[in-house]
Amino acid sequence: MYNIKQATLHDYPRIMEIWESAVLATHDFLKKKDFELFKQLIPSEFLPQLQVFVLEQNKQIDAFFSVSDDNLEMLFVHDEARGKGLGTQAVTYVVEILKILKVDVNEQNPRAIGFYEKVGYKKVGRSQVDGMGKPYPLVHFEFQKV
């Protein structure tokens, strides 16, 4: 079991390593220029506006997630740590401790959609573009208690 703790600025370099590893493994639809743009914006513009948490074991951070007031904004697991239950542990924390039930997922990322459906989320809507107006459709999910 990993420890979940609030991230500090000191964690941002590792967070970005995790983000890059996960995105390269799962976001083949992302244009190179957008990848580079997000890589710049996440640590400087996005993370400072959010509550950011890391999953750490033996002083090694292998996943992170961030939340706003009512939305899970990001959840990324390092590619080498996928399949170890970190995503499920993060979602459990988000739902049970933080009481945040919403998440938006890239429609072009079927593995992520499958993951969220498996852990209890149901589709409640769709947007043609992402939050920055880029042509990456989003599926809106809300956690449904079983």
UniProtKB/TrEMBL annotation:
<keyword id="KW-0808">Transferase</keyword>
<dbReference type="InterPro" id="IPR016181">
    <property type="entry name" value="Acyl_CoA_acyltransferase"/>
</dbReference>
<dbReference type="GO" id="GO:0016747">
    <property type="term" value="F:acyltransferase activity, transferring groups other than amino-acyl groups"/>
</dbReference>
<protein>
    <submittedName>
        <fullName>Putative acetyltransferase</fullName>
    </submittedName>
</protein>
<dbReference type="InterPro" id="IPR000182">
    <property type="entry name" value="GNAT_dom"/>
</dbReference>
<dbReference type="Pfam" id="PF13508">
    <property type="entry name" value="Acetyltransf_7"/>
</dbReference>
<feature type="domain" description="N-acetyltransferase">
    <location>
        <begin position="2"/>
        <end position="146"/>
    </location>
</feature>
<keyword id="KW-0012">Acyltransferase</keyword>
